[in-house]
Every structure is written in C-alpha cells, then in structure tokens.
Structures
1.
Amino acid sequence: MKRKMILIATLASLMAAATLAQAEDHRLAAERLDDVLAKASAFGFTHFREIEVENAESVEIEGWLDDEWQAEMRLSLQSGESLEEERKRREGGAWGMSEDDVRLAMEVAVAEGLAEFEEIEVDRDGRVEVEGRDGEGRELEVRSRQGERDMREMERD
C-alpha cells in the first residue's frame, strides 16, 4: 500500500512538472520581441493584428503583408521561415499595429511588470492586450490603446 501511494505521488509530480514545462514553452522573454518582429518584417508583415507564442521555436502571426494581402502564419524563430501559412486577399486595406506600435505596447506591459509574453493583439478599435507572466510567474494582462504610452487596465492572477 505504501509503495502504491509513493508511485501515485511520483506520477502526480511528474505530470505537474510536464504541465509546467509545457506552459513555459508558450512564453518568450519580453526582450525577444525585437527578434520576432525582425523575422516577421523580413517575411513581409507590415501590420500586426496578433502575435502568439506557440513554443520556444515558433510564433503564430496574424496581420497584413500589404494593403491587399492578409496572412496568418506560424513562423520559425530560428530560421525565420514559414512553417504554416495562409493568405487571403482582402478589400478595405491593412489595419493593425506597426512594429513601433507593438514595441510601445510591450514597453507599457514591461513597465507594469511583464517579464514573458504569450500574446499581443489589437482589435479594429485600437484596443491592445498583452498577456504573459511577471517575474514571479504570475499571469498578467495589460491593456492599452494603440499608439499610447499609458496603461488602461491590468489584471494579475
């Protein structure tokens, strides 16, 4: 019976460690944003609607390549190559954040304690949300407006 309890406790610990390791794969240090933007820009992105960390080696990016082509792709952080890609021709012109807007949103979030990011996104009205973790590993969501240096709202879990 004692052996069975030890085995169950060991398995539970291993599962918890695996879950934590997997969760950490979905975050990047805030200072890696410039690398992400450089690779996305080299691929052709001009406007960003969403940047989401898939794992330590790739990010998913939604945005615009120009005024006609909207793209969603998974981008390798090592090579800068597209791992998956979907393009759609759209009317109405590009919208989203420029590289400078994305950097500004990250600056606002870092000023509020963000250390690692999971996702950055903007809606058509210019509301920006940066999700990630602070230096102590707690979940953090920072909301701001596109092009503004002031934080609008913050949630910590």
2.
Amino acid sequence: MTEQYKIFETTLSGTAVGNPFKEVWLKATFTNGSDYYTVNDFYCGGGQYKVHFS
C-alpha cells in the first residue's frame, strides 16, 4: 500500500531480446474501490522495466 501523494515505483525483470521498445507491451492497473487507473510501463535497459504511479 502506498500513502496518499507518495510515488509508487516498481522494477520488473523481463526480456532484453529483440526490441523491447516495440515488442513488449506492459501495463499496470491500480484500483481503489470502484476507481481504477491504468498506466504504461517504460523500458530502462538491460531487461528492466519500470512502473510509476502517484
């Protein structure tokens, strides 16, 4: 759980084969009761992907 107004960040390991900028599609969905928010990840090299949400 992340406190209100704090930034949530996680790093995920994935493939570095091919072109991850074009070939990998990853999204995260955050929920709070009936509200939900979907955000895109981004590739930061070396098979590492990040998700940020605030």
3.
Amino acid sequence: MTIPKELRDDLQIEEGTTFTVVREGSDIRLVRNLPELQTLSAGKSREEWGEKAFRDAGDATFGGR
C-alpha cells in the first residue's frame, strides 16, 4: 500500500514505519505502531538523581496534569 508523500510528510511517517490494519464495519483503518518507550537515566541510579528529579519529570512532561 502506498501513502502519498504529502500525507507522509504531514504525518511525519518515515520509511519502515509499521501499521496495524483495523477493520471497523466496512471501513479499514491503519494504526501506526509506535516504538517501545525506554527509560533513560544517563547511567545514574535513582539515588544519584534524587526523588525530586523523578517527581518533577511528570510535571515537565505532562504539564502537571
């Protein structure tokens, strides 16, 4: 299946992106498979980072929601 370049560029779909095909009644929907998220710690332990760094990470990422 070919996705038009303009749409790929707009949705930031790169070569090698994989999708799951989902049937919804008589429609077909493509769902982009996202890569697994990884936790990065720069080689430091939780103790080295301290509790405040981990507590504030959620606020920084999600705006305190």
4.
Amino acid sequence: MGRMDRKSSIETEPRTLKMNQIQFARLTALYVMNTTSMEEAIKIFTEE
C-alpha cells in the first residue's frame, strides 16, 4: 500500500482572498502586534 500525501484542511478550502489581500492582512497583523499591547491586539483581532 502506498503512502498517502496529506494536506492540511486549509489547503483544500476554496480561496476567498487574492494573494495580495492575504499579504496585506499579514502585514497589517504584524503592524498591530508591533505597535499595540497584547491586550489591545487581542481586542482588535477578536472583535466582530
């Protein structure tokens, strides 16, 4: 029996953002992490 290559579930989901949008989100998240307190960053990332 051959080895099964596994992919994470995130790789099998359809993409809803373009790569430039994903990169912008990553850079924005890094900016928030580097310029705010941990408590404030958690509020920003978890508020609806």
